[in-house]
Amino acid sequence: MLRTNFTGLQIFDKLLVPAVIFYNNILSNGLRSDRMLLVSLFTTMQTMSHCMLVLGWSGGKRRPWTNIEHLFWGVFNQAWGAAAVYPLYCFAHVQRFLEEEEDQPKNHEIGPSNPEEAFALVPAAILGAITPGMLLFPAFTTTFSINQRQGLIALYRFTPLALTMAHSLFVWLQGKIPGFSDLKSKQHASKNFVAASLLISGATAATGHVWALACSEHEELRRTFVPAASINVASPTVIADGARDFLQWDIFIIMAALVPMTDLILRSSRSFRRLRKQYKWIRILEDSFFVRAAGLTLTSGLLSPGAVLAIVLAMRAYET
Predict the structure, then answer these.
(1) How many CA atoms are closer than 13 Å to the CA of 289, on its beta-carbon side?
(2) 58 bridge partner residues
(3) pTM (predicted TM-score)
(4) Which of 47, 185, 236, 257 could connect to 87 by a Cys-Cys bridge, CB 3.0–4.6 Å?
């Protein structure tokens, strides 16, 4: 039975129904491989969302359109999938790191220079880390009714708006809680807060992906991550099969988009440049994109591409 009423406003409910149709069967079919696929993918996507939030600052300053842009990418991702969104996002933001080859200190900065804004990224990262649980929890229990499960799927569509507003809310709350006013004087702590938020978010993606790998035996691992050669359109599980295939290709394209982006951020870091001067094998990495790409792809396959990107961004944030 398909639920079609969520908000009471038909104009919004029509936009929510396709997602309910897409996820309902794959969340309720009882297959461990599908649960692990969802855990790996959604923890990675929430980490990528946090990386997008952090990259909304340029030279330590938040651009006026940052919230609108973050909401745009989030809604775009919900509507069309990460495979469509992440390559476009990376293409739109790659110029920033190409310009930083000149190593200008202000342009090199990742995240906010304001310590209050930087600290607010930490609870924002924690909120983002637990958000996928709202969608995924029904896949791990039988206590939810069909109506409740479909309601949570629809509710998850609003997470881009919630996460976009969350950071500003946490900044505002700091001004209302005694003891946080002294953060303004701790300018040097900004980079620590930014790096910590990225590591929290990255650790979530790594935990989700490693859990998915650990819970899958050889044949099940292939079923979890490798798209099927074909889909039987006459099968009663065709909707779940199609959703699984779509999400599996998502993972491959996410990796194809994030590995080059991560490589560029890594190469533009001061730490990488210092290591290049000290170690010959680092110079080999510097000279060969294919060697670096192979290493980052392998690491992303073990930890998730979102986790690797977050870790590299944390390193960049801390060194500024």
Answers:
(1) 7
(2) 61
(3) 0.92
(4) 257
